[in-house]
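pasting input
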Amino acid sequence: MTEDELDALIMLAHLGEPGDQVLGSYVRKRGPVAAVQAIKARKSGLRDGAGLYARLRLADPAAAREKCGRIGAQIITRGTVDWPTQLDDLGDAAPFALWVQGVAGLRLAALRSLAVVGARASTSYGEAVCRDWCATFADTGWTVASGGAYGIDAAAHRGTLSASGVTVCVLAGGVDVAYPKAHEALIARIADEGVVVSESPPGEGVRRHRFLSRNRIIAALTRATVVIEASVRSGTTSTANAAMQLNRYVLAVPGPVTSPMSAGCHNLIREQGAILASCPEDVLEVLGPLSASIPRVGSDPQLWEVPHKVTDDLSAREMRVLDAFPGRGEVSLNQLVCDAGLGPMDVAAALGILDTGGFVKPNGMSWTRAGRA
Amino acid sequence: MTEDELDALIMLAHLGEPGDQVLGSYVRKRGPVAAVQAIKARKSGLRDGAGLYARLRLADPAAAREKCGRIGAQIITRGTVDWPTQLDDLGDAAPFALWVQGVAGLRLAALRSLAVVGARASTSYGEAVCRDWCATFADTGWTVASGGAYGIDAAAHRGTLSASGVTVCVLAGGVDVAYPKAHEALIARIADEGVVVSESPPGEGVRRHRFLSRNRIIAALTRATVVIEASVRSGTTSTANAAMQLNRYVLAVPGPVTSPMSAGCHNLIREQGAILASCPEDVLEVLGPLSASIPRVGSDPQLWEVPHKVTDDLSAREMRVLDAFPGRGEVSLNQLVCDAGLGPMDVAAALGILDTGGFVKPNGMSWTRAGRA
């Protein structure tokens, strides 16, 4: 990835409306640098439906980086080592870049994550179940992603934090725009102990349709989506639908048939094939081992049990380090640096992810291949 | 059906333990008369596992009829016009005879019936849902069958009665043995306004295993089984399993995941393919029109939507009357009596069932074929 490409992706993240598939398809065909050049020259042929050209004036990678430094955020772009590759399942609707604020690495956290979402107008039943289950998910090493909203979202983040777990909050506006305002302290705490992420540049406010685009990110980042409570027609359903389209598991928690806030969950189970989850173990069973891969788009949902190529989730850097391992026996960090032809920091970072994924394991000062490699 | 055959079936109902498939298979091969003769002569070759020979002394059709008269019950036997033919789906485990007490005709009531069953240790949530739904089922013309037990069963009967509906109570002991004792008044009221039925002769007490045999009758009599509340391992599950084996629909009502009394329902949905029912309409949708046929054993559950031959549920008498109808136009009762070669009372009774089933309809003093014929 060249500097020009990184700059182009940051430009595109400013120019496009989240989830714009026309722009996404254009960039896929041209490449980001040529695409940005054509847009700048007004020669892209793209319609200015979403204010593409108006935003050109405001999109400046250097200024964006400078702003990030000021608010303590990071920009990560497609194709870089920190990118959560499962977002590529979104195809032309995948984001070009993400703004991230927090202590946990998004890629690593998201590799072992599930989404827990639900109604804003939740009941005490739903909130109690949500807090409880999320604490269990955290205890078993899972990252809980949600949207930071009132009700179930907040209960999911709080339940995870209560068990000292990692939680990911995907915002519909910029990472520096706490929404809802009342959750400013909660979102700040998530940044302190987990990750706050957005595909909108800092300063961007929330708009109605961006909640829907945000929901697709939550679904794509995670291995499964658990709906705790939802009314029949709700934004939560959009997250569940996105997850289904992405071949991710969708689970729904039943509740009293007399509660409108469980009606959406019952619908998902009855009509849409969501799995009924009656306890956290039901969810953990579906998630599989922490180190398993996320079922990917294109795989037959009936065949989710059949593992796809286990290294599909690895970045080029991680593959390169893994390839540098001997078939058997131990290898030192120095040897890996030589054989992989990468800097020591790069190798160390890759080893961290390979270790988490169950591909390699440390053995004193050396490393060996592990079960999945 | 000759007098000898009726007597033999009544004998067999006294001799066999409910659901005894060895005896059932023997009777199927020999016919009831020859089977009883062989048993009497100790030449059946059947093992005396269930007290077959000890009961011989006590089994006397004439005495049984006399006793029935005394307690105001009726005996109906296999192969007679009053027999609910869907019980034949039980194969060799089908009862030989049923004792019936009540105002409603069992055959007609059961043609348009569903089972509503559940935990004895029910919660107020389950009872409220049950009463409510059963009142709706009654309002829409459905008969509700259940087992007269504490908890959900009682709520099902009471909810149906509250809407002046017909309810069928299938007892594990004789029809004159109210069980549980505390439900004596309820069971008497059911006999007054609906039907109380048992495959055990009057005077027979309940025994543990007879609850399981009784459950298969509830499942077989009805078009679908709705489980309102159930713990994970419970007798209710046996009714649901019997219904599934019989190709009947099984629906389960979800509840709070924090309630052990909903855990069995959640299991049925999650593990066994029961349909989640969140409102009475969910059940009615599955039941189809009142006049539809019960999906029968041997049909592919995937093909339940495809109607089998619609006259499969009709008795020989009803078929004979239906066949006497002209292809088009009206026919008088007198003409039907002539053409069917049956007595006026037989024809009138058959017309009642054919009318209920949507095969024929009255038109002033005459009759015409209706939609399904």
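fyi Chain B touches chain A at residues 125, 128-129, 253-258, 262-263, 266-267, 269-270, 275-279, 282 (CB under 8 Å).
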